[in-house]
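User: Watch each token:
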Amino acid sequence: MRPLEQLRDEPLIGEVAFMIAGDRKPRPLLFHAAANTAYFLTVDALRDFERSEAIGSGPFVVPAIAFWFLATESYLSTIYKAASEIEAATKAQMPTHGELRQTGKVVEKLVAIDEWVTEDTRPPAPRNRLQDFATFRNALFHDLTSFDKPRTQYAHTCFAPRAEKCNQADLFEAMRVSLEVFEFFRHLFAAADLMPSIQLGPVVEKVDTLAAEVLEPAFAEILAAKELTVQPAATERPKCAAELRIPLQVMIRHEGPMAATRPSGQPGLAVDRRQDGAVQARPIDDKLFQPPDYSRQQS
């Protein structure tokens, strides 16, 4: 028996890292996993949306929005950290004479990287929409809702003025903002394509391609079947005006510790067996359903 906690320090299968040219030290590249989770949660949200007659967020919209933001923030943080190391190592190889602005905020990282590379103080293309996304995300995940506070009005996106009323339209707006940020710095490093790659079984494809090939048309088909519409997606995603001459290499680990897939020897998955048992232990008429119960039970 091996303690699961001890395996966290070992090289793990599927870990993704990057190396900067001339430096053989791998560094974590976390946006890959977050983008994959965001994609598949969006697929789950579409499945749930198609099956349900009720309008609302369902169980997958909010988690999917969370992971699109996480993927976007991690994407910018990865690039920002790489840029910081490059600046510290050698300024002679840079196409700019300025310094990388120090910041820990997601939108400011976008601006700082763009200014550092291009020597241009104009706001980069995705800035305003990313700021809207950050505001919406903060309202949703920090529960900034209030009875008397005015609704948040978004000038550059169509996010819900009341974040708690979000639905699939907000999920797709979140995805589209993320794709704009991914596209903006996609080719920032020489010979690298930083658009997140999605693992579909044995094959891999870029997330923007799958969004155009799978997610957007599926969403449109479901909306048409439900006689609903949403605001159309933007057709153009601008790119950063400059490219670093320094290459960045991305790698994924294919070896690591393994464990049996069915350690208990029981049929079916452990959580499914127990969840099915919990439902069967609480029988209810097929024509009824129970509302959430927040009343105190009398002992």
In short: The CA atoms of residues 225 and 256 lie 46 Å apart. The longest strand covers residues 244-252. Residues 13-261 form one domain.
